[in-house]
Specification:
Layout lengths: L2 E7 L4 H15 L3 E6 L12 E9 L2 E2 L1 H16 L2 E7 L7 H7 L2 H6 L6 E6 L1 E2 L3 H12 L4 E2 L3 H23 L7
Parallel strand pairs: 1-2, 1-3, 3-5, 5-6
Antiparallel strand pairs: 3-4, 7-8
Length: about 180
Amino acid sequence: MKRVLIVYASFSGATEEIAHYVKRHMESAGYTVDLVPANAQHMDLSAYQLVILGAAIRGNTPNEGITAFINSNKEDLNQSTTAIFAVCGTITSTKQNRIDNALTYPKKIASGITPIAEAVFGGEMPSSGWIGNLVGKLLLGVIPGDYKNEDEVKLWSQLVIETLETRQHNRNNIAIEPE
């Protein structure tokens, strides 16, 4: 049986919603998917062919729930096949330096884990009143809105599936040369 674990840490619900998008696309490809919120609990990851970690980013920092989960499961995660996604508003910025910074978030989440795929998805940028919105636009290059895009998540999910299945196929076809 092909099993996937998705562990997510959300501030306002956008990361959880994106985790559900990933779950739906993995299930449509024939995977059995467990979806759990991140916390410090240790989990047995050996039953999963893939562990996907997703976290919201606020102030350049991953949600502490995902950090606690990774710290509690670091050894097992290093032995697992993983993929990572981040959710933040600054990926939608009009300022290239903000986008470039947002693209580093999966590495911040990974904490030394080497994933087979990474992504950064837009989340929700709530309105902060006219002054807050103006400051957000001028400093960060972002405006309030819902930037979740299920089509982007679907494409990434397909990439993850293809990468995982190619790796598994290659492992199954390794020939051992006789001495």
